[in-house]
Design brief:
This protein has a domain of 163 residues: Alpha-Beta Horseshoe (Leucine-rich repeat, LRR (right-handed beta-alpha superhelix)), CATH 3.80.10. Strand 8, helix 4 and strand 9 form a beta-alpha-beta unit. The protein has four helices and 32 strands. It has a 21-stranded mixed beta sheet, with no helix packed on it. It has a seven-stranded parallel beta sheet with strand order 12-14-16-18-20-22-24, with no helix packed on it. The protein is 5% helix and 19% strand. The longest helix has 10 residues.
Length: 551
């Protein structure tokens, strides 16, 4: 049914002053653009929604390059229920007063619009609000009056004018917003509430989504927080909660608690997250082992991030076969012991990061048979044994492989070995004695690290003919190709980082001057004779050149 907006609600005509600007900022999906009043039926305008009576009830002006003076007329649209001003740049001006006049609002989105200072108390009178998003960004385009180039003063200025809930504080602000189901206050300063923020929010019985990232919150989390029975998404990352994790989290689907200064053990309830799809408690000081679990108790878990903690003990092999788990970060903990074999055919893992632990023994065969793997990092552990790269040949989706800094002996016997998707390969300190010949055919490889091995001789020409962006051959007895060799100039199109520290380089090669993209060169620890210079190398970036040692 075609709708015609009510004439007596056409305060919209005020917007025609910036209609042209707005139309250029919107997508082409609209039926009619806001151009010069070509139609008085505002219900057909892009971003406008009307009810059956023709009153404007929805207005989406997101990412429309608006400024503060453009929006005052919105407050005359008394039937408005949904207002989206996200993604505009209000250059650190306060949220204008007048929103309280929109008493029918159920959804208000002011996110990423660079508003500043105190959130107006009038918003707290919008008792019909179901969704409120005031999340903001760290860096905003500053007003023209502020032209100080000093980074520290810019940061201090933005911090001083950061969006905040002070008067009223959080408790007073949400007291009457009992209908809220979604609340996003990311990067809003809530420090005025002290450590009672969780108690203040416990009065919102219908809350399902809560995001308070980087809000200067303090812990611990109050037991009254358990009153939020319907909460399914909780994001509290980057706050100083300084406590153990005590949450009734069985109904949560998304839990982000990284960088919160949590300590203590992982709660036993983490082994029974039947609804969870994402859990991230990385970058804390959590100790102990992962609670025992049954795979059936974590049926929906897709992303598990436990990295950068102090977790210990062996890793349960069932973790690799959870029915929905695709992303597993256990890196930079203190896990130890051997990895036991598991049923690789039951795994749907795509990313596995186990680096930076104390895992030992041989790498289980099943780890190299997870055909869905795209990223695998086992670096900086205590794995031992001989590993043939051919063992990973079934991983046709593999994009990144890192086996560095173990006690492995890596071998490559098949010159026809091919990883069709491999973008990054790191085999530092893997006891290699020669350049793996399969690399000849890895044309899509961008990052290669073969440092700290036992490779000797001149670097083969074919290694320079790919499209590498980053190459590290440090701590090998290798030298650049002989001057008589023909180095393919296609290399000059891509190589940006070249590290050959403590190799067997005695002369600065002229062909480096052909590498147009090279911006970082490290030849330190070599014995290059005479006065050497990187002056012939040009780049749009300043070249960072580590001066070699002279004999």
């Amino acid at each position: 049914m075609d709708l015609t907006c009510k004439y007596n609600s056409l305060h919209f005509l005020i917007f025609l002053a910036f209609a042209s600007q707005y139309s250029h900022g919107r997508s082409s999906r609209s039926k009619h653009r806001w151009q010069n009043g070509t139609t008085k039926d505002c219900c057909s305008w892009d971003g406008v929604t009307c009810d059956h009576s023709g009153f404007v009830v929805g207005l989406n002006l997101s990412y429309s390059s608006l400024s503060a003076g453009d929006i005052d007329a919105i407050f005359n649209l008394r039937h408005l229920q949904r207002l989206n001003l996200a993604g505009n740049n209000f250059q650190l001006t306060p949220i204008p007063s007048g929103l309280e006049r929109l008493s029918n609002l159920t959804h208000l989105n002011l996110s990423f619009s660079c508003f500043s200072d105190q959130v107006p108390a009038g918003i707290s009178s919008l008792v019909r609000l179901e969704s409120l998003d005031l999340s903001t960004v760290f860096f905003c385009e500053l007003p023209p009056t502020f032209n100080d180039p000093d980074y520290n003063r810019i940061f201090a200025f933005e911090e001083k004018h950061r969006l905040r809930l002070d008067k009223p504080n959080l408790e007073s602000f949400v007291r009457n917003l009992r209908a809220l189901t979604e609340l996003n206050l990311d990067y809003v300063d809530l420090s005025a509430q002290g450590s009672s923020w969780s108690q203040a929010l416990s009065v919102l019985p219908n809350l399902k989504f809560l995001s308070l990232s980087t809000c200067k919150l303090k812990g611990p989390i109050h037991t009254y927080f358990q009153n939020l029975k319907f909460l399914n998404t909780l994001k509290l990352h980057r706050n100083n909660l300084s406590s153990e994790i005590h949450l009734a989290i069985w109904s949560l689907t998304n839990l982000l608690l990284y960088t919160c200064n949590f300590s203590g053990l992982i709660p036993p309830s983490f082994a029974n997250l039947t609804s969870a799809t994402e859990v991230d408690i990385s970058y804390n000081s959590i100790e102990g082992s992962i609670p025992s679990f049954r795979p059936s108790s974590l049926p929906k878990l897709q992303d598990q991030h436990l990295s950068f903690n102090r977790l210990t003990g062996p890793i349960d092999p069932h973790l690799f076969t959870l029915p929905s788990l695709k992303v597993l970060y256990l890196n930079d903990n203190r896990f130890s012991g051997e990895l036991r074999e598991f049923s690789s055919s039951s795994s749907v893992l795509e990313k596995v990061y186990l680096n930076g632990n104390n895992l030992s023994g041989e790498i289980p065969t099943s780890m190299s048979e997870i055909t869905s793997l795209t990223y695998l990092s086992l670096a900086s552990n205590r794995f031992t044994g001989s590993v043939k790269l051919e063992a990973f040949k079934h991983l046709s989706n593999l994009t990144s492989l890192d086996l560095s800094f173990n006690s492995l002996n890596i071998k490559n016997d098949d010159p026809d070995l091919m990883f069709p998707s491999l973008d990054e390969l790191k085999l530092s300190r893997c006891n290699l004695t020669e350049f793996p010949t399969f690399l000849k055919k890895q044309e899509q490889l961008r990052t290669l690290n073969l440092s700290n091995n036992r490779i000797q001789g001149h670097i083969p020409d074919w290694l320079w003919t790919g499209y590498l962006n980053e190459l590290d051959l440090s701590d090998n007895e290798v030298d650049f190709p002989r001057e008589s060799s023909q180095v393919n100039t296609t290399f000059s199109l891509s190589l940006g980082i070249l590290a050959m520290r403590s190799c067997s380089v005695f002369k600065f090669p002229k062909f480096l001057q052909l590498l147009d993209c090279l911006w970082y060169l490290d030849l330190s620890g070599n014995k290059i004779k005479g006065q050497q210079s990187a002056s012939g190398i040009t780049s749009e970036w300043d070249l960072q050149y580590e001066q070699p040692l002279h004999s």
